[in-house]
UniProtKB/TrEMBL annotation:
<keyword id="KW-0175">Coiled coil</keyword>
<feature type="coiled-coil region">
    <location>
        <begin position="2"/>
        <end position="57"/>
    </location>
</feature>
<dbReference type="Pfam" id="PF04102">
    <property type="entry name" value="SlyX"/>
</dbReference>
<protein>
    <recommendedName>
        <fullName>Protein SlyX homolog</fullName>
    </recommendedName>
</protein>
<comment type="similarity">
    <text>Belongs to the SlyX family.</text>
</comment>
<dbReference type="InterPro" id="IPR007236">
    <property type="entry name" value="SlyX"/>
</dbReference>
Amino acid sequence: MAAESEARLVDIETKLAYLEDTVLALNDVVTQQQKQIDQLETKIRRLVERVQQIATLAETAAPAANEKPPHY
C-alpha cells in the first residue's frame, strides 16, 4: 500500500512539474504578444495621426484646386 501511495505521489508531482512548465511557457507567449500589441497600437496611432494631417492638408488645398486660374 505504501509503494502505491508513493507512486501516486510521484505521478502527481510529475504532472504538477509539467503544468508549472506549461504555465511559464504560456506566460512567456502572452508577454511577447502583449509587447507586440503595444507596438502595433503605437504604429496605428501614428498612422491615424498622419492620415488626419494629410486630410487636413487636402481640405485646405482643395479650395485652391477648385478655383479657376486667373487667365480664364
